[in-house]
Every structure is written in C-alpha cells, then in structure tokens.
Amino acid sequence: MSTYVVVGAGPVGRATARLLAERGDEVLLASRSGRGEDVPGVRRVAVDAADADALSALVQGATAFYNCVNPGDYTQWDEAWPPVAAALLTAAERSGALLAVTGNLYPYGPVDGPMHEGLPDRPNGHKSALRARMSADAFAAHEAGRARVVEVRASDYTGVGVGDNGHLTLAGRMALGGRTAWMLGDPGTRHSWTDVRDVARALVAVTDHPSTWGRVWHAPTHEAVSGRDAVADLCRAAGLPVKPVRGFPPGTLAVGGLVVPLLRELRETAYQFRRDYVLDSSAITRELGLEPTPWEESCRATAASLLGTPEPALR
Asked: What SUPFAM superfamilies does the database record attribute to this sequence (predicted)?
C-alpha cells in the first residue's frame, strides 16, 4: 500500500483524497486546521503549507504529494503563494516524493484559439506571472534532477463542493434560487468548465505514470459551453425553471475596482469572459484514456451540491 499526501482540503483536494482512498492507498489530507468534513478512509492532519520543515516531515516516505492549495483571499496571492510554493518544492527536493501540482490556465494569458499544452506561458498580469513563475521554478528543479514534478491545469471549476468560489457555481446559485444570474463579461461566449472530479482523476493518473512527469497536462474537460447555456443546464438538472443570465455592464470592474479590491483583481482575468475561452484536453484522453465526466452528469452533481443534497459518488 502506497502513502499519498494531499495538501489542501478544498474540492479538488477532497476529490483527490477520495479517489486514492477508494483504491486502497493510505491518504493524509492536510490543511492548516486539520479539520473539516470526513472523507472515508482518509486521515486529516494539520500543517502549515508554508512551513518547509513541517511539510518535508509530513511527506517523508510518501510516494507522491499533491499541491491542492487555494489561498482563500484572491487579493492576497502575491503574499500568500510564494512561501507555499517554495515550501512545497523544498519538501519535494528533500523527500524525493513526486510533487503533483494543481495548476490553472492563467499563465497562458489571452490566446487565439483553444489552449493546448504546447503553448508557451505568456502571462498578462501579476497573478498570471506568479503562477507562471511557480510552474517554471518547479520544472527547473525537475530538469536539474533536484525534484520530480508534474502539473495538471484546468479551467474554471464545476462539480461538487465548488460553492461560490466558481464563476459558474456563483451564477448557478443565483439561478437555482429563482433569481436572474449575473456573470462577468459576455455570457454568450464559449467557455470551458472542468469538473473537479476530473481534475482529481488527472492528478492521480499522472502520478501513476512516470512517463508523464516533467510537463503540464490538461485535465479532461467537456466541450466548451457558454455561461448562459451552462446556467440553463444547471437549472434543468435541478428540475427548476431556467432563469435569465446577464453580464455585468461594461466598466463595472473598472469603476467597482476603485473601492472593492476583489473587483480590481478580476480586471486582469476579465478577458476570459469577454471572448471564447476554450481548453483542449485531447492529449490526456489520447495518451492516458481519460474522458471528461459527461456534461449532464457534471451539471447534476453541481446542482445537487449547490442545493445541499447528498454528494454524488465519484466515478
């Protein structure tokens, strides 16, 4: 039986821990508090992800550990992420355990056409530059033989447990509550949504295949769906009336950002909702056989989670 450590107990971390436990591995789910909802077969532990010594001790002897950390305050990434990223990489170097990173699409910046793993990182702001630097530092350590690293990138999350931290789930909660749903940008543009369970499946799969290490992979992601259609599909999945979806008026982020820090931060990534934003995940399907969760199933799971009904089982 192998031992795995999942650092970060958000929706991706819990889904990853659950998958590993279901196949019989020993799994530690680490967070700052060490508390939270029980995941069957998983032991919760407390650790400060920015403490390199504590993290190194925790992952010593593990086959792999997963960076599923998501700093809670979006406006504080520049302060929160660097010490965590440094501690994770130090733990990988000291322990020899594989570091599997949950990444995002920010490093690519605005692109024309679908995003694929062959694209260079071309960040367009401080948050995307931060994520690109984290990725570059990790792969530099891998290339130098100091650590073993693999990264899985995904688009905006949908699925179980995402709550109001997701663009679609935030709008979906409005619609499921019988209100008009509001979204950033143009809700009619095509957008890729990745089920958190598929991120977990990708993380576990690349961990199991040494030939995949040392590069970025895209989590299996369903064909792009507009925000308007996605919210409508959530309503249908819940058996509720479809509600209108509207985009915030142009200038909302610029004006609101003068007084609301979160809106100011969102200006950097607003391009993702003003133009088609499409993720190509064909490589992981072709090379590892991973298909995305069917869209209808993902919508049912997302709606059930938002409505507080029991969490659907992982596939």
From this structure: NAD(P)-binding Rossmann-fold domains
